[in-house]
Design brief:
Blueprint lengths: L15 H15 L29 E5 L6 H4 L1 H6 L2 E5 L11 H11 L5 E3 L8 H16 L1
Parallel strand pairs: 1-2, 2-3
């Protein structure tokens, strides 16, 4: 699977022109007609990315359990903006004292309409539901 690294030159976020250059590089490397999805992993903190339009069709917030259940309270903008919420490493939640009820309640208040997926990439938990949803989004975009 082709991957392109984007160097932000010290910025705390990606900008649309950086994505445009990466898309051009994908086009030259494999041809855009051969690509169904481009994943953009934004960099930096959870404040800056929501303020910059990258031309994405969908924004997915991925939080890892070790980051803490308080992140939606600290950085509400990114959680409100997200079209879907993915919580990874749920298998280790007890070791990190992650309060699932607190996390869920906060998301209910910030963005109740966004689909949510609790997954463990290591154990495969929740991955089928997440992948099925993502495939559905791709098919919907093609239609």
């Amino acid at each position: 699977m082709p991957a392109i690294q984007i160097n932000t030159g010290g910025l705390c976020h990606l900008e649309g022109n950086m994505i445009m250059e990466a898309v051009d590089a994908f086009d030259q490397a494999v041809g855009l007609e051969n690509i169904d999805v481009i994943f953009i992993e934004n960099v930096g903190n959870l404040v800056c990315p929501v303020d910059f339009d990258l031309g994405e069709n969908l924004s997915i917030m991925i939080l890892s359990v070790p980051e803490g259940d308080d992140k939606p309270i600290k950085y509400p903008g990114i959680f409100q903006h997200a079209g879907a919420q993915l919580l990874n490493k749920v298998d280790v939640a007890p070791a990190f004292d992650f309060d699932m009820d607190r996390y869920t309640k906060t998301l209910d208040d910030l963005n109740p309409q966004a689909p949510r997926f609790a997954v463990s990439a290591r154990k495969g938990e929740g991955m089928d539901a997440w992948c099925d949803w993502l495939i559905g989004q791709i098919e919907q975009a093609r239609a």
